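To assess whether ligand presence alters the predicted conformation, the chain was also submitted together with adenosine-5'-triphosphate. Input:
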Amino acid sequence: MINVQHLTKDYGEIEALKGITFSVKQGSFFALLGPNGAGKTTTVRILSTLLSKTSGEVHIHGKRLTENDARIRRMIGIVFQQSTLDDMLSVKENLLLRGQFYGLRKATVLKRIDTLSEWMDFKDTLNQRVKTLSGGQRRKIDVARALINEPKILILDEPTTGLDPLTRRQLWTVMTRVRKETNMTVLLTTHYMEEVHDADHVVIIDRGEIIAEDSAHHLRLKHAKNMLYVTPKDVSTIETLSKALGGTSVEGRIHVPLNHPFDALKILSENRDTIESFEVVEGSMDDVFLNLTGRRFIP
Ligand code: ATP
């Protein structure tokens, strides 16, 4: 679906992308992560045909970037960090205009607006001028606009920054539904690690280079520690118990790193009599991100 080979981008002296290679399968949920300035926006802007590359090859649905940009643009929907809606027009007018841009018939676009406003719960704002919408309402319309032509690929560059948790969840519910129902590929950049918990494919870039790549699940297994937290019945035995469990004692609790969360079962059953309470916490994408990109920031 998307194939990127040795992609580079220089902004004068700055090498924003130093030859990245990855591919994205059709219908998958793909996440591009990295610290500020890593090159995420540069990558998505190149894939969206909005920015020219310095070198490398990109194919989208078999079409070569720079030779087939108009056809590629028709296949993708884009949501950028900044809203691109016309403030002076109503929600419906904005969406109609976008549909017409793709050469769709008015009746087709109206039907699509009807479906999207139902799914995304914005029927009541259809006739409202965009400039009067709240930040979250506006974001929904940005996403609806990107979905108006039923794109094969939806590209989202930090789409949920600044949204309240409910609106974020609503947007994700809709995007997941659309992706599954239409086999649409979703390419996301975000700083909210919980949003990529279920990503089929995650690429982490740092300073223009890929530093890790796998499914979110496998990255967590590899780079995030699962932890068992144990409170002993008798605090005076904490050091002995801690040694026996292979952990460290921290403020009255024993922290035991686990390769797999299920490893806790054996430890707990073998030490049942000495344990007051316990908690198993699975490694998160936050841990993955910090472990892979945070090292250079920690003295
Ligand atoms: P963020 O998470 O902060 O949005 P990002 O991963 O999207 O960051 P990019 O915006 O792609 O990063 O920037 C990558 C590098 O390229 C940075 O060093 C940035 O300063 C530089 N850069 C981006 N756009 C330009 C530009 N138009 N001119 C010069 N340098 C640029």
